[in-house]
Amino acid sequence: xxxxxxxxxxxxxxxxxxxxxxxxxxxxxxxxxxxxxxxxxxxxxxxxxxxxxxxxxxxxxxxxxxxxxxxxxxxxxxxxxxxxxxxxxxxxxxxxxxxxxxxxxxxxxxxxxxxxxxxxxxxxxxxxxxxxxxxxxxxxxxxxxxxxxxxxxxxxx
Length: 157
Fold this sequence. Notes:
This protein is an all-alpha fold. The protein has two domains: about 25-90, Helicase, Ruva Protein, domain 3 (Orthogonal Bundle), CATH 1.10.8.640; about 105-155. The chain contains six helices and no strands.
């Protein structure tokens, strides 16, 4: 009985941590839906592979609250995106605009894919050419093969 109470005494503080508590939801569901829709288009600066809507990092929660406050002030989604981009750069957007500074982000993967295909085809062509060259025997090699085959057939008789 004492072991169970001791175990409960140690487990109780872990069950009541503040991270496990739910975040308060805004009273206006339309505003909250708009906040989450815009937060889904913005990247979490801490997680980097999650949107603000999906992230539970402290900075993401602060940014969502900031977005919510700007929406309550009456700012449009475009104004909020412009504010976030001005403050954090194009990296905060999941779909950064095509500009001279982001051109490599948009074209780079296709260029790398094309270069990879070209290297692969060149390698295959070189390998085929090398295999065809090595398959042909010189006259000396052909004579030696015939001699070996003749020796093998004569020894079987």
